[in-house]
C-alpha cells in the first residue's frame, strides 16, 4: 500500500470517528440542536390539532384544553429535544410512535411530564412521574424542576429502544421488545388497563404529539427540535 493510500485511509478513519462522535445515539448530554429542524412550524401549518386550542406566543407553545397536537409527518428513528415548564399539578407528556391519533392512548408510547412536587403526582406510582415511560417504566431518579422553571428533555427513539434524558440525566432506557404483556411490566408491576397494547407489538414509527392541558393544569413548551437518525 503506497503512502498516499495510507494517508487517505487514516484521514477517512478520522473523519468517520469525528462524524460518529457528532451523532452519538443516544446523546451523552443534551445535544447542540442549532442545525436541527423545528418539530412544529411557528404558524403550526405542519401540525394536526383542534383549531384554537394550541397557540405559539413569543416562542412558547401551550394549549387551552386537554387536546393533543400532532406532527403531520410520520417519524421512525429520531431524536426530539425540547424544553418544558410545568405549573402546579401539571400532567402532560410527549407522545411517540403514534399510529392512531383518534385513539392514541393504547397506540403509542408516552414519555410522562408531571409536576412531581404536587401531592397527587408525588404519591403516584413511579411510572406516573416525570421522565417515566408512562405506565411502564419509572425514571431512575426525579430530575424535574419546580413549577415555573424550564426543564430540558431529550428523547431518542431508535427501533424498539427509547432513551429519555431529563435535565442532564438519563432517567429511562427501554427496550420495547421486553414488554410482551399489556397487564404487567417485566418487573411485575401493573400496567394501567387503558394501555391495552403490549409495547412489543407496537409499530416503531408514527406521529409525534404533545398532550395538552390535562388534569386541569397547563403545560408550556419551547425550542422543540427534531433530528432524524439511522
UniProtKB/TrEMBL annotation:
Residues 52-227 form the 3-keto-alpha-glucoside-1,2-lyase/3-keto-2-hydroxy-glucal hydratase domain. Coiled coil: none annotated. It holds the Pfam family 3keto-disac_hyd. InterPro entries: AL/BT2_dom. One of its GO terms (molecular function) is hydrolase activity. This is DUF1080 domain-containing protein. It comes from Anaerobaca lacustris.
